Amino acid sequence: MSAAGLLAGARARGWTIGVAESLTGGLVTATLVSVPGASRVVRGGVVAYATDLKAALLGVDEDLLAERGAVDEAVAAQMAAGVRTATGADVGLATTGVAGPDPQDGQAPGVVFVAVSTPTTTEVHRLELEGDRSQVIAGAARGVLELAEALVSASSGEKSDTPPVRLPEVTDK
């Protein structure tokens, strides 16, 4: 996973990035903006931790949230599309899931959906992550950045030789 590679790929296409985060609480955006030159590509991020904010800020369908809950493939896809609109970005990244320790919306801890919406495609991946809360959060951030880099690189036809930016260690104290 390379935040720098994602940013380079987006910049090569002339694309900007917006991020919608739930369980990652800003980690994805922080990882992106830690790369020098990120301001040329990153438009902003929305941390919609509460379910009602996913509808109010990102345009996620309220009926979908009521029926399936926030931890859902379609919710992740709508978050990614919604953050594109909210930030005026070309590419939207989204994370939603259960960091634990308790289940949520009928999903076990470690179940995460990451989504990326570009001008040409939207893709959602379900991740089943193991570990404590901080490990699930870090894994979710890594997962969405990997998906985004793959989709943006595939769209641009370019591969980055920029060294990866490592996610910071997150520990519960």
Automatic annotation (TrEMBL):
NCBIfam families: PncC_domain. Transmembrane segments: none annotated. This is Nicotinamide-nucleotide amidase. Residues 152-173 are annotated as: Disordered. Pfam families: CinA. Residues 8-149 form the CinA C-terminal domain. It comes from the Bacteria.
